Amino acid sequence: MLALVNFMRQFRHYLIGRKFLVRTDHKSPLWSQNFRDPDGQIVRWQEYLQDIEQKQHGNADALSRRLTRDHGDCPSCSVSYVLPMSLHAPESEEWAAIQSSEPELKLLYQRLFHNQHRPPSDEIVGSSYPTRCLWALWSQLRVTDGVLYYQKGPTYLRRTVVPSSAVETVLKRLHEELGHAGQNKLEESARRRLCWPHMRRDIALFCQSCTERGQVKNRRPSAPAPLQTIKAGFPYELVGVDIIGLLPRLDRGNMHILAMVDHFTKWCEAIPIPKLDAWTVAKTLFPEWIARWGVPYRIHTDQGSNFESLLFKELCHILNIKKTRTTVYHLEGNGM
């Protein structure tokens, strides 16, 4: 679709006033017309193509999507199959054994299993918090095939009630099968099939204690330290030197600018130079700055080869100038 729009724009001056044929896969224009409320780029594409009379191109899809024969061992012709991954949960017998032997579920499980009435509140007062929560949901609990389920309504899926002693085991198995997913994905997967009190809290604590997830997940990089102005106490204490370019060649052959700034007075000089080599930089720096304004106490540059050359270091040594440099690939270190 984008290729059609781009090439029609490129050759528009040839196409205006003429009848022409565009042979393309009809699925792409059809795809753009299926938007109910298109906006932005799709609207611009539709507006550009609305004057074109479109006809069905029936054999385009058939030719472009024609199946080829599998040649066996040929790696470029072999077909790769994508199979769904099934998450293994405990069997019904295993769930029934866990729930029936759990002390906090035993009373409720036995009454539901034998279709008895809900126990009175006097028997639940001294029970654990999960037992009291399930007692309050008595009308939504069912025992099917020996397994205790929670079902909010007839249109909702039933969810297996997990005892407190099995929460950690279930979370660990589900977390590993999901590829050490984060808290939100783990909670979403658990709520579709499982039920127990304080699910969100337990999942959050479990994810925080998972060391393998911390190694796999891309941690958010720490924020860089804020930039600060390099302080100078007197004129020419610190002079920043850098090169601007490559620029268009001038009549004298200059293609670069040697920029020199005093950090205290903010006075700057910009001298055009033809080359970037150390000899040109030193020959320009000495008469244009040092001879006019005096010898600076310190010169601050990046780690370019012209500033790190023996010639530039010897110039600083003869004039007793302290030479400092910025960190690698961090041009902000030489800013104001």
Automatic annotation (TrEMBL):
SUPFAM superfamilies in the record: DNA/RNA polymerases, Ribonuclease H-like
Molecular-function GO terms, alphabetical: endonuclease activity; hydrolase activity; nucleic acid binding; RNA-directed DNA polymerase activity
Gene3D superfamilies on file: 1.10.340.70, Ribonuclease H-like superfamily/Ribonuclease H
Domain Integrase catalytic positions: 231-336
PROSITE patterns attached to this UniProt entry: INTEGRASE
UniProt keyword list: Endonuclease, Hydrolase, Nuclease, Nucleotidyltransferase, RNA-directed DNA polymerase, Transferase
Pfam families documented for this protein: Integrase_H2C2 (PF17921), RT_RNaseH (PF17917), rve (PF00665)
GO biological process: one example: DNA integration
UniProt keyword Hydrolase, yes or no: yes
Name of the protein: Integrase catalytic domain-containing protein
